[in-house]
Protein backbone atom coordinates (compact mmCIF):
# COMPACT_ATOMS: atom_id res chain seq x y z
CA UNK A 1 0.00 0.00 0.00
CA UNK A 2 2.70 2.48 0.88
CA UNK A 3 4.96 1.90 -2.11
CA UNK A 4 1.97 2.38 -4.41
CA UNK A 5 1.47 5.91 -3.11
CA UNK A 6 4.79 6.94 -4.60
CA UNK A 7 4.01 5.62 -8.09
CA UNK A 8 3.07 8.07 -10.86
CA UNK A 9 2.17 5.62 -13.62
CA UNK A 10 -0.23 7.04 -16.20
CA UNK A 11 0.25 10.61 -14.98
CA UNK A 12 1.53 13.51 -17.03
CA UNK A 13 3.94 15.93 -15.38
CA UNK A 14 5.03 19.34 -16.69
CA UNK A 15 8.32 20.76 -15.40
CA UNK A 16 9.22 24.35 -16.27
CA UNK A 17 12.90 25.19 -16.53
CA UNK A 18 13.24 21.43 -16.96
CA UNK A 19 16.10 21.43 -19.44
CA UNK A 20 18.86 21.38 -16.85
CA UNK A 21 19.78 21.70 -13.18
CA UNK A 22 17.17 21.05 -10.52
CA UNK A 23 14.35 20.94 -13.10
CA UNK A 24 15.98 18.18 -15.13
CA UNK A 25 16.63 16.14 -12.00
CA UNK A 26 12.97 16.58 -10.99
CA UNK A 27 11.91 15.39 -14.44
CA UNK A 28 14.08 12.32 -14.05
CA UNK A 29 12.72 11.54 -10.57
CA UNK A 30 9.10 11.80 -11.72
CA UNK A 31 9.85 9.73 -14.82
CA UNK A 32 11.49 7.01 -12.74
CA UNK A 33 8.22 6.67 -10.82
CA UNK A 34 6.28 6.25 -14.05
CA UNK A 35 5.16 9.75 -15.12
CA UNK A 36 5.16 10.96 -18.73
CA UNK A 37 7.34 14.05 -18.74
CA UNK A 38 6.87 17.37 -20.50
CA UNK A 39 9.79 19.71 -20.01
CA UNK A 40 9.47 23.38 -20.90
CA UNK A 41 12.46 25.69 -21.07
CA UNK A 42 13.12 29.11 -22.52
CA UNK A 43 16.09 27.91 -24.54
CA UNK A 44 15.59 25.35 -27.33
CA UNK A 45 19.11 23.92 -27.03
CA UNK A 46 18.78 23.49 -23.25
CA UNK A 47 15.33 21.90 -23.61
CA UNK A 48 16.60 19.49 -26.27
CA UNK A 49 19.67 18.56 -24.22
CA UNK A 50 17.43 17.80 -21.24
CA UNK A 51 15.17 15.70 -23.43
CA UNK A 52 18.13 13.76 -24.82
CA UNK A 53 19.35 13.04 -21.29
CA UNK A 54 15.91 11.69 -20.31
CA UNK A 55 15.56 9.61 -23.46
CA UNK A 56 19.05 8.17 -22.98
CA UNK A 57 17.79 6.78 -19.69
CA UNK A 58 14.77 5.27 -21.42
CA UNK A 59 12.15 7.69 -20.13
CA UNK A 60 9.04 8.86 -21.98
CA UNK A 61 9.43 12.62 -22.42
CA UNK A 62 8.96 15.58 -24.72
CA UNK A 63 10.47 19.07 -24.71
CA UNK A 64 8.94 22.44 -25.54
CA UNK A 65 10.14 26.02 -25.64
CA UNK A 66 8.27 28.27 -23.22
CA UNK A 67 8.94 31.63 -21.63
CA UNK A 68 7.01 31.52 -18.35
CA UNK A 69 6.85 35.33 -18.20
CA UNK A 70 4.40 35.42 -21.12
CA UNK A 71 0.91 34.68 -19.73
CA UNK A 72 -0.75 34.16 -23.14
CA UNK A 73 2.01 31.76 -24.21
CA UNK A 74 1.67 29.88 -20.93
CA UNK A 75 -2.09 29.54 -21.45
CA UNK A 76 -1.68 28.37 -25.05
CA UNK A 77 1.00 25.90 -23.93
CA UNK A 78 -1.28 24.50 -21.20
CA UNK A 79 -4.12 24.10 -23.75
CA UNK A 80 -1.79 22.30 -26.15
CA UNK A 81 -0.39 19.92 -23.57
CA UNK A 82 -3.82 19.11 -22.13
CA UNK A 83 -5.18 18.52 -25.65
CA UNK A 84 -2.29 16.20 -26.46
CA UNK A 85 -2.29 14.22 -23.20
CA UNK A 86 -5.92 14.48 -22.13
CA UNK A 87 -4.89 15.67 -18.72
CA UNK A 88 -1.98 17.13 -16.76
CA UNK A 89 -1.73 15.66 -13.25
CA UNK A 90 1.44 17.36 -12.02
CA UNK A 91 2.95 20.80 -12.54
CA UNK A 92 6.37 21.70 -11.20
CA UNK A 93 6.89 25.46 -11.51
CA UNK A 94 10.67 25.39 -11.29
CA UNK A 95 11.90 28.02 -13.80
CA UNK A 96 13.77 30.75 -11.96
CA UNK A 97 16.73 33.10 -12.23
CA UNK A 98 19.17 34.57 -9.73
CA UNK A 99 21.07 37.60 -11.03
CA UNK A 100 22.55 37.78 -7.53
CA UNK A 101 24.94 40.31 -6.09
CA UNK A 102 23.67 43.89 -6.05
CA UNK A 103 22.79 45.97 -3.00
CA UNK A 104 19.15 47.02 -2.61
CA UNK A 105 19.98 50.70 -3.00
CA UNK A 106 21.80 50.03 -6.27
CA UNK A 107 19.25 47.65 -7.76
CA UNK A 108 18.35 48.65 -11.30
CA UNK A 109 14.67 48.68 -12.30
CA UNK A 110 15.38 46.09 -14.97
CA UNK A 111 16.92 43.62 -12.52
CA UNK A 112 14.03 43.93 -10.04
CA UNK A 113 11.44 43.54 -12.79
CA UNK A 114 13.19 40.67 -14.57
CA UNK A 115 13.80 38.54 -11.48
CA UNK A 116 10.28 39.05 -10.17
CA UNK A 117 8.82 38.46 -13.62
CA UNK A 118 10.38 35.01 -13.93
CA UNK A 119 10.41 33.89 -10.29
CA UNK A 120 7.06 35.22 -9.17
CA UNK A 121 4.83 36.23 -12.10
CA UNK A 122 5.94 33.20 -14.08
CA UNK A 123 5.03 30.86 -11.25
CA UNK A 124 1.58 32.41 -11.02
CA UNK A 125 0.93 32.28 -14.78
CA UNK A 126 1.82 28.56 -14.79
CA UNK A 127 -0.19 27.79 -11.64
CA UNK A 128 -3.20 29.64 -13.04
CA UNK A 129 -3.09 28.03 -16.48
CA UNK A 130 -2.54 24.44 -15.31
CA UNK A 131 -4.58 24.96 -12.13
CA UNK A 132 -7.65 25.75 -14.25
CA UNK A 133 -7.30 22.47 -16.10
CA UNK A 134 -6.71 20.53 -12.89
CA UNK A 135 -9.79 22.07 -11.27
CA UNK A 136 -11.86 21.13 -14.29
CA UNK A 137 -10.42 17.60 -14.26
CA UNK A 138 -11.10 17.24 -10.52
CA UNK A 139 -7.55 17.08 -9.21
CA UNK A 140 -3.84 17.62 -9.54
CA UNK A 141 -0.65 18.35 -7.66
CA UNK A 142 1.41 21.50 -8.10
CA UNK A 143 4.89 21.96 -6.66
CA UNK A 144 6.49 25.39 -6.80
CA UNK A 145 10.20 25.88 -6.32
CA UNK A 146 10.77 28.58 -3.76
CA UNK A 147 13.98 29.00 -1.81
CA UNK A 148 15.36 29.28 1.70
CA UNK A 149 16.02 32.83 0.47
CA UNK A 150 12.28 33.39 0.96
CA UNK A 151 12.83 32.93 4.71
CA UNK A 152 16.25 34.50 5.28
CA UNK A 153 18.46 37.22 3.84
CA UNK A 154 21.38 35.50 2.17
CA UNK A 155 24.91 36.55 2.87
CA UNK A 156 27.45 37.65 1.84
CA UNK A 157 25.81 38.24 -1.56
CA UNK A 158 23.14 40.91 -1.70
CA UNK A 159 19.96 39.90 -3.48
CA UNK A 160 16.88 41.52 -1.99
CA UNK A 161 15.04 41.18 -5.32
CA UNK A 162 15.59 37.40 -5.36
CA UNK A 163 14.76 36.87 -1.67
CA UNK A 164 11.53 38.85 -2.00
CA UNK A 165 10.51 37.01 -5.17
CA UNK A 166 10.90 33.64 -3.42
CA UNK A 167 8.98 34.74 -0.30
CA UNK A 168 6.19 35.70 -2.70
CA UNK A 169 6.26 32.18 -4.17
CA UNK A 170 5.73 30.70 -0.70
CA UNK A 171 2.76 32.96 0.00
CA UNK A 172 1.32 32.34 -3.45
CA UNK A 173 1.57 28.62 -2.73
CA UNK A 174 -0.46 28.81 0.47
CA UNK A 175 -3.05 31.21 -1.00
CA UNK A 176 -3.69 28.97 -4.03
CA UNK A 177 -3.73 25.89 -1.81
CA UNK A 178 -6.44 27.45 0.36
CA UNK A 179 -8.57 28.32 -2.67
CA UNK A 180 -8.23 24.95 -4.38
CA UNK A 181 -8.00 22.48 -1.46
CA UNK A 182 -11.64 21.39 -1.54
CA UNK A 183 -11.51 20.89 -5.31
CA UNK A 184 -8.74 18.29 -5.31
CA UNK A 185 -5.80 20.46 -6.36
CA UNK A 186 -2.90 20.49 -3.91
CA UNK A 187 -0.27 23.23 -4.09
CA UNK A 188 3.01 22.92 -2.19
CA UNK A 189 6.49 24.37 -2.47
CA UNK A 190 10.06 23.35 -1.79
CA UNK A 191 12.62 25.78 -0.40
CA UNK A 192 16.14 24.55 -1.23
CA UNK A 193 19.45 25.63 0.22
CA UNK A 194 22.39 26.34 -2.14
CA UNK A 195 22.38 23.64 -4.81
CA UNK A 196 25.23 22.93 -7.21
CA UNK A 197 23.86 24.06 -10.58
CA UNK A 198 24.55 26.74 -13.19
CA UNK A 199 22.77 29.19 -10.91
CA UNK A 200 25.36 28.95 -8.15
CA UNK A 201 28.30 28.74 -10.55
CA UNK A 202 28.97 32.46 -10.08
CA UNK A 203 30.36 31.56 -6.67
CA UNK A 204 33.15 29.49 -8.23
CA UNK A 205 36.50 31.14 -7.66
CA UNK A 206 35.00 33.14 -4.81
CA UNK A 207 36.12 30.92 -1.98
CA UNK A 208 35.27 33.61 0.57
CA UNK A 209 31.63 33.44 -0.49
CA UNK A 210 31.45 29.66 -0.42
CA UNK A 211 33.19 29.60 2.97
CA UNK A 212 30.48 31.84 4.41
CA UNK A 213 27.74 29.65 2.91
CA UNK A 214 29.23 26.44 4.33
CA UNK A 215 30.00 28.00 7.71
CA UNK A 216 26.36 29.14 8.00
CA UNK A 217 24.98 25.72 7.03
CA UNK A 218 24.62 23.19 9.86
CA UNK A 219 25.42 20.31 7.44
CA UNK A 220 28.38 22.33 6.12
CA UNK A 221 27.70 21.42 2.50
CA UNK A 222 25.72 22.46 -0.55
CA UNK A 223 22.96 20.27 -1.97
CA UNK A 224 22.70 18.28 -5.19
CA UNK A 225 19.74 18.58 -7.60
CA UNK A 226 18.58 15.02 -6.86
CA UNK A 227 18.13 15.94 -3.19
CA UNK A 228 15.49 18.47 -4.22
CA UNK A 229 14.00 16.19 -6.86
CA UNK A 230 13.08 13.52 -4.33
CA UNK A 231 11.27 16.04 -2.14
CA UNK A 232 9.37 17.30 -5.19
CA UNK A 233 8.49 13.72 -6.10
CA UNK A 234 7.03 13.18 -2.61
CA UNK A 235 4.92 16.34 -2.87
CA UNK A 236 3.76 15.43 -6.38
CA UNK A 237 2.75 11.92 -5.34
CA UNK A 238 -0.16 10.55 -3.32
CA UNK A 239 2.30 9.94 -0.47
CA UNK A 240 1.71 13.59 0.49
CA UNK A 241 -2.08 13.46 0.03
CA UNK A 242 -2.76 15.36 3.26
CA UNK A 243 -0.32 18.16 2.48
CA UNK A 244 -1.25 21.39 0.80
CA UNK A 245 -0.06 24.99 1.24
CA UNK A 246 3.21 23.82 2.76
CA UNK A 247 6.69 25.03 1.88
CA UNK A 248 9.08 22.21 2.69
CA UNK A 249 12.55 23.37 3.61
CA UNK A 250 15.26 21.19 2.08
CA UNK A 251 18.07 23.39 3.29
CA UNK A 252 20.71 21.30 5.10
CA UNK A 253 19.55 22.98 8.31
CA UNK A 254 20.36 26.49 7.10
CA UNK A 255 17.25 28.09 8.59
CA UNK A 256 17.85 26.46 12.01
CA UNK A 257 20.48 29.06 12.85
P1 LIG B 1 19.35 26.74 -13.61
O1 LIG B 1 19.72 28.10 -14.05
O2 LIG B 1 20.34 25.64 -13.75
O3 LIG B 1 18.00 26.25 -14.34
C1 LIG B 1 16.91 27.09 -14.49
C2 LIG B 1 16.31 26.84 -15.84
O4 LIG B 1 15.16 27.71 -15.99
C3 LIG B 1 17.28 27.20 -16.96
O5 LIG B 1 17.26 26.23 -17.98
C4 LIG B 1 16.73 28.53 -17.44
O6 LIG B 1 17.04 28.83 -18.77
C5 LIG B 1 15.25 28.33 -17.26
N1 LIG B 1 14.52 29.59 -17.34
C6 LIG B 1 14.95 30.82 -16.99
N2 LIG B 1 14.05 31.75 -17.28
C7 LIG B 1 12.99 31.09 -17.84
C8 LIG B 1 11.75 31.50 -18.38
N3 LIG B 1 11.39 32.80 -18.40
N4 LIG B 1 10.91 30.57 -18.87
C9 LIG B 1 11.25 29.26 -18.88
N5 LIG B 1 12.44 28.81 -18.41
C10 LIG B 1 13.30 29.71 -17.88
O7 LIG B 1 18.90 26.91 -12.10
P2 LIG B 1 18.58 25.86 -10.94
O8 LIG B 1 18.31 24.53 -11.49
O9 LIG B 1 19.59 26.04 -9.89
O10 LIG B 1 17.22 26.52 -10.38
C11 LIG B 1 15.93 25.93 -10.51
C12 LIG B 1 15.01 26.59 -9.49
O11 LIG B 1 15.50 26.35 -8.17
C13 LIG B 1 14.91 28.11 -9.63
O12 LIG B 1 13.58 28.52 -9.38
C14 LIG B 1 15.81 28.62 -8.53
O13 LIG B 1 15.47 29.91 -8.10
C15 LIG B 1 15.57 27.57 -7.45
N6 LIG B 1 16.61 27.50 -6.45
C16 LIG B 1 17.89 27.24 -6.81
C17 LIG B 1 18.89 27.18 -5.84
C18 LIG B 1 20.31 26.91 -6.17
O14 LIG B 1 21.16 27.10 -5.28
N7 LIG B 1 20.66 26.47 -7.37
C19 LIG B 1 18.56 27.40 -4.42
C20 LIG B 1 17.17 27.66 -4.16
C21 LIG B 1 16.25 27.70 -5.15
P3 LIG B 1 18.22 29.95 -19.13
O15 LIG B 1 19.40 29.62 -18.32
O16 LIG B 1 18.40 29.79 -20.59
O17 LIG B 1 17.67 31.27 -18.71
Automatic annotation (TrEMBL):
GO MF: oxidoreductase activity, acting on the CH-OH group of donors, NAD or NADP as acceptor
Keywords: Oxidoreductase
Protein's GO biological process: carbohydrate metabolic process
Taxonomy, superkingdom: Bacteria
Keyword field contains Endoplasmic reticulum: no
Family, per entry: Belongs to the short-chain dehydrogenases/reductases (SDR) family.
Protein name per the record: NAD(P)-dependent dehydrogenase (Short-subunit alcohol dehydrogenase family)
Protein's organism: Aureimonas phyllosphaerae
